[in-house]
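Tokens in:
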């Protein structure tokens, strides 16, 4: 849905295609999966809350790992000197800082992002169309 906004902002298809990976990569890096949220530089702490990728990934992690138990096999215990490092999905949620995820809030915010991108795309496309029609007159 971000592509509609991007497509309405640029003049040609090639520019939109070039900007796509840049825009999405920016949000993906700061979603907490590739870069721990504690390691985000202070001047980028505003990015995760406005990243639709962050809200989607945190909901996915919470859905998959909350209240899940893991067990090590005998072979794994032998290789790990008798200790199983990860025994619950909540340990993973804590590691990625998704332990306080609220699935209802995440779903609500993703719906808001969906409509916001559509409205922004409409606004920019309408603005672009008005400029073109004024030039033709």
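Residues out:
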């Amino acid at each position: 849905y971000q592509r509609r906004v991007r497509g309405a902002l640029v003049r040609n298809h090639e520019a939109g295609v070039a900007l796509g990976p840049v825009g999405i990569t920016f949000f993906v890096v700061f979603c907490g999966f590739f870069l721990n949220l504690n390691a985000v530089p202070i001047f980028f702490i505003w990015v995760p809350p406005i990243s639709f990728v962050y809200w989607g990934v945190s909901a996915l992690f919470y859905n998959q790992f909350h209240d899940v138990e893991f067990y090590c096999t005998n072979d794994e215990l032998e290789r790990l000197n008798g200790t199983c490092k990860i025994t619950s999905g909540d340990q993973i949620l804590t590691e990625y800082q998704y332990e306080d995820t609220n699935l209802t809030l995440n779903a609500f915010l993703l719906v808001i992002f969906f409509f916001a991108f559509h409205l922004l795309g409409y606004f920019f496309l309408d603005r672009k169309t008005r400029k073109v029609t004024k030039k033709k007159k």
